[in-house]
Design a protein that fits this description.
The chain is mainly alpha-helical. The protein has helices spanning 2-26, 46-53, 77-90, 120-137, 152-165, 173-177, 198-207, 226-236, 240-249, 262-265, 281-305, and strands at 58-63, 96-97, 141-146, 169-172. The chain is built from 11 helices and 4 strands. Helix 3 packs across helix 11, helix 4 (120-137) packs across helix 5 and helix 7 crosses helix 11. The longest helix has 25 residues, at 2-26.
Length: 308
């Protein structure tokens, strides 16, 4: 019996020893789902960046936000969509995608849990230091993509400061791509349809489909200050002066007293009367295609003018 017991014990240790290394080698992070993306700086190695610099000195930097997007879109919508759009552009041309900051300027969304807002000075300083770092490595041309409307003034100043204080040359993505943008086939909305509405939800359905919870989308009840409500028909008719004044007051922090923060105007955080369930991935695909095509045409033109 002792011989059998020893034999069984030895066999048990042998089997255990053979199984443990197998599991240790085979087991990986069950939450990991990313694939390596070409020209995406966080995925690249030093030799890959060095090789890239032999072909191009151009960088695109998306600047997004971490803010509420209703019941159906994630807090990171602006950041994620901006990064994914830049990745798609970088599959078509040699341009480095270099996101460095997830949060943006979003004080008017602070009435909803999860929103993070940074000062304009912080956003500007982080991105200027980013550009200065990349310039040291040999990058000299920068496209600044504003992926969040609230960053518009900041990104405009950032482009100016890069051009005024560094050897680099910077342009705004929106301004650069606009002349090359194909007109949309989607008819204008007959009702207010802005933040987290059907345009943004449609783009999200295409760019990050598994993060959109369309079944949880709810049509918002919108309450605008009376004088802004009176402006709405002309805003929808795309009168440029009315739209400028409407946006100058609309979506501003509660502390300003304008009564136009998202929590004061919308029951869900969506700034629009249209049901987000009317969104579609097909519309998002078309909007993305037109944007990527316009970006590629601009990059080709810049390379031509720069003699690249």
């Amino acid at each position: 019996m002792r011989t059998n017991t020893v034999s069984i014990t030895v066999l048990g240790f042998f089997l255990l020893g053979s199984l443990v290394p197998f599991h240790a080698v085979a087991q990986t992070n069950p939450l990991w789902s990313q694939q390596k993306v070409k020209h995406y700086l966080p995925h690249m190695t030093v030799p890959e960046v060095e090789a890239f610099l032999t072909r191009s000195d151009m960088v695109i930097i998306p600047i997004g936000a971490l803010e509420q997007h209703g019941n159906h879109l994630p807090i990171g919508t602006d950041f994620i969509n901006g990064v994914e759009l830049c990745k798609l552009i970088a599959q078509e041309r040699d341009i480095l995608v270099s996101p460095v900051l997830m949060a943006g300027q979003s004080p008017y969304h602070m009435g909803f849990a999860g929103t993070i807002t940074l000062s304009a000075d912080t956003i500007l300083k982080v991105h200027l230091e980013t550009v200065e770092s990349l310039i040291r490595h040999g990058f000299n041309r920068f496209i600044i993509m504003n992926a969040h409307g609230g960053n518009r003034a900041i990104t405009t100043l950032l482009v100016d400061q890069i051009n005024q204080t560094t050897v680099g040359v910077a342009v705004s993505f929106g301004q650069a791509a606009r002349p090359f943008m194909e007109a949309s086939s989607t008819p204008p909305s007959a009702v207010l349809d802005r933040h987290a509405g059907t345009p943004e939800t449609s783009s999200s359905l295409y760019l990050m489909p598994n993060l959109v919870q369309l079944d949880k989308a709810v049509a918002a009840d919108i309450t605008l200050p009376t004088h802004l409500q009176d402006m709405l028909p002309e805003v929808l008719d795309r009168d440029s002066t009315t739209l400028m004044l409407f946006l100058a007051e609309g979506l501003k922090a509660e502390e300003t007293g304008k009564q136009t923060s998202s929590a004061e105007m919308s029951t869900t955080g969506v700034w629009g009367a249209r049901d987000p369930k009317e969104s579609s991935a097909a519309r998002g695909e078309d909007d993305t295609r037109r944007t990527v095509d316009a970006a590629v045409k601009f990059i080709d033109r810049w390379n031509e003018l720069a003699g690249k």
